[in-house]
């Protein structure tokens, strides 16, 4: 029995679920499948279904703290369309010196493909990647 045989879900801690909902739903366009309590906070967690049966859990916790390293990655077919849509919804993609990103924040990914990064209101970094 190996842990790698089981599904995994990304969970992202935030300091304010209402502010986070504005980002994850309003900017990223995710649709909540359900909500529940978190650390005694009624309605403090949102569960977003993503592709291929995966799930993203965003939950309020006093232990939340932003991280500059990537906490979740979405693998997409058309990175330009996704990035442009998120930008139109008010999202601002990170720019890093020396990464060769274009004016939209899309750059080459190590090993091939392309990548862009965006941070939620707590500074948690989300990556958008494409093999094209």
Per-chain topology:
Layout: E1 10-14, H1 17-27, E2 32-38, E3 41-49, E4 55-60, E5 70-75, H2 79-88, E6 107-108, E7 114-119, E8 125-130
Parallel strand pairs: 1-4, 5-8
Antiparallel strand pairs: 2-3, 3-4, 6-7, 7-8
Would you mind describing this structure in some detail?
- It comes from Leifsonia sp. NPDC080035.
- This is VOC family protein.
- Residues 6-131 form the VOC domain.
- Pfam families: Glyoxalase (PF00903).
- The chain has 132 residues and is of the alpha/beta class.
- Helices cover 16% and strands 36% of the residues.
- It has 2 helices and 8 strands; from the N terminus they run βαββββαβββ.
- A 4-stranded mixed sheet has the order 1-4-3-2, with helices on one face.
- The longest helix is centred in the N-terminal third of the chain and has 11 residues, at 17-27.
- It is globular, with a radius of gyration of 15 Å.
- The N and C termini lie far apart (36 Å).
Structural class: alpha/beta
Shape: globular
Number of helices: 2
* Measured distance between first and last alpha carbons: 36 Å
Q: List SSEs in N-to-C order.
A: EHEEEEHEEE
Question: Cα-atom Rg, whole angstroms?
Answer: 15 Å
Biggest sheet details: 4 strands, mixed
Strand order of the largest sheet: 1-4-3-2
The strand count comes to: 8
**Helix proportion:** 10-25%
Share of residues in strands: 35-45%
Task: List segments where confidence is low: pLDDT < 50 over at least 5 consecutive residues.
Answer: none
- Overall mean pLDDT: 94
């Amino acid at each position: 029995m190996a842990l790698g045989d089981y599904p995994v879900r990304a969970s992202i801690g935030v300091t304010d679920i209402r502010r986070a909902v504005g980002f994850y739903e309003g900017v990223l366009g995710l649709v909540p499948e359900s909500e529940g309590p978190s650390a005694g906070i009624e309605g403090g967690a949102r569960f977003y279904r993503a592709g291929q049966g995966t799930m993203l859990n965003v939950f309020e916790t006093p232990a939340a703290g932003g991280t500059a390293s990537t906490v979740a990655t979405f693998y997409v077919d058309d990175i330009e369309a996704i990035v442009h849509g998120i930008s139109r919804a008010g999202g601002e993609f990170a720019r890093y010196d020396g990464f060769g990103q274009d004016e939209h924040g899309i750059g080459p990914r190590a090993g091939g493909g392309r990548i862009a990064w965006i941070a939620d209101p707590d500074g948690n970094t989300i990556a958008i990647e494409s093999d094209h």
